[in-house]
Amino acid sequence: MSQSTATAISPDSGEHWSAPGAWTVADGIHRIPLPLPMDGLKAVNIYVLEGADGLSLVDGGWAITEGRSALEAGLAKLGFEFGDIRRFLVTHVHRDHYTLASVLGGEFGAEVLLGAGDRPTLELTNGDLDGWISTDRLLAHAGAHELAEVWAANPPPAPDLAHWRMPDQWLDGDVRLSVAGRELDAVHTPGHTQGHYVYADAAAEILFAGDHVLPTITPSIGFEPVPVVDPLGDFMASLTKVRSMPDLRLLPAHGPVADSSHTRVDELLAHHEDRLAQSLASLRAGRSSALEVANDLGWTRHERAFSELDFFNAGLAVMETKAHLELLAARGQASREETEAGITFAISG
Fold it and tell me: Per the database record, which ranges form the Metallo-beta-lactamase domain (predicted)?
């Protein structure tokens, strides 16, 4: 069983994993946690790779004052500054990973790389994508009509487009990158987002895992602004793909450094199989919508009732439950019916 995110100590620092600083995790590789003051995750880990031509960073952080200051301070402890950054290898498009990379890349000329699967999200954010479905409509379609009304009444602020520039390079498929004197395998791992990538340094036996393999939690699934057909199926296939790679030291975006990517992947696969079984049992009990099934499940490691969740986390829970039900339907264990009123599921046969 994984340790709690709230109490997890990272072996590279000997302190709570979110403690500020610049912590050396391997020769020429350092972890700088950046604070997320408005987020339950507490911090995001940025990894600094030293090279002869300058620095390469895995992820960039959230473009807020606290994050920028923490990154500047962490680099200074290592004897560097923003102008030494040559590139950002961003694992995925979420704001706590992408936006500071976008800003600093624009200011200092650092190259930003991102998975092509996240292009629709960036196009949507920049107002260039037609035919998208708003979150409140997605929630209503999943049976969560009251929750959809709350979401509609609390729209997100207009994005600062300087935070959401298009990257300098799109990654497509699995590719080998020569970065900071290292050969990194950029491995496409859709699920959390469609453009998610992990970066493996086979020689150093290290996996920069982003949000794909987290040591204390499982990432949200099914909550993208541009929906996909089977996000949980994608995520579990990507976990299996990482499991087929050598067992590597796990360097996650949130949480402490861990010894074994295989151990955590096995735990995550088992967790989702258990959630699938619970969702199937809920359908057998007569539930039919994602909202109804979500009400039967426990949430967080503390097994909180759905009714205890705030509107944002309740929305995540409904869409994640829908992702589990969609996978049950894809496996032939449940039937699926879509009408104008919404999507319902039932035991197959």
Answer: 43-254
